[in-house]
Specification:
single chain, alpha+beta
Amino acid sequence: MADQRDTIRHVLRPCDAIERIYLCREFVDMRKSINGLSVLVEAVLQLDPFSSHLFVFCNKKRDKIKMLIWERNGFVLWYKRLEKQRFRWPKKLESDVIELDVQSINWLLDGFDLSKMKPHQSLHFTTVL
């Protein structure tokens, strides 16, 4: 039974097939559904809701997340509600929208604070000699 739960968990999580993930930094009224969120993507975030990119929204209490994506012939809306804890939503950023990678959005869904997670510095070399 545990194996089935793990399989289902991974199916319902963002995967590497998603090219871009946009996180709306401003809090959103969770009564919004597909129509309201897709209008928000186009009018406020000034992005294309039909782009097959994943758009992520959070409520003010930070205990609910909705994710919206266009999939070939219709929208898919994913919703997660926490029972006791809060999502660590990014603060103090210049932009209203943040681009994340798949690993980061999954860390956010698992409760990690992305602002405190700093990777090693990227190194760029021109030769091995």
